[in-house]
Amino acid sequence: VLKKKFGDSVIADHQKLKIESVSTGSPLLDGAITGFGYARGRFIELSGENSSGKTTTATLMLIESQRAYPDELIGFIDIEHAINLEYAQILGLDISPERFILSQPSSAEEAFEILGAFSESGLFSAICFDSIGALVTQDQLDKGMDENTIGSVGRLIGKSISRINIAACASNTTIIWINQIRTKISLFGSSETVA
Of 37, 50, 125, 128, which is least surrounded by CB within 10 A? Predict the structure, then answer.
């Protein structure tokens, strides 16, 4: 009955559900999360305080992805315009154009368009998005941080994330999101929030 109504794809193919694992570059972290590393084709969020090693951890993950999938690209969407390519190379990242694509978008909308295109292409094994906390919409750039632009980043993320998730799963592309932990003023509960 379900196949008649929705087609053959309504019943999952168990063979396609096999998830590949890629090392994070750290045996301790691999052991802590699955014993094998991170799952390919999924969203991964690295969050922490400023200068806590998020981008370094993401770079090590990209290096391992390059090793595991040498015929596929690695992408880095640098919202902060702060990537240190010399340091990334010292760690072992191959930044040659046939292995690595760097994008430094000028707005949040541009960043999500690029991420969507990268994810849909099927050319990338992993893409790092650094960072969510640095996103600024075109409206905020044009009008400033007034009451009409409050929440615009959240609305954009909400609009974009489902499409990107579907594309990343279909193309087996891992998206590594980097986020910041910030302190908020709070009388109740934790004073930490992810921005």
Answer: 50
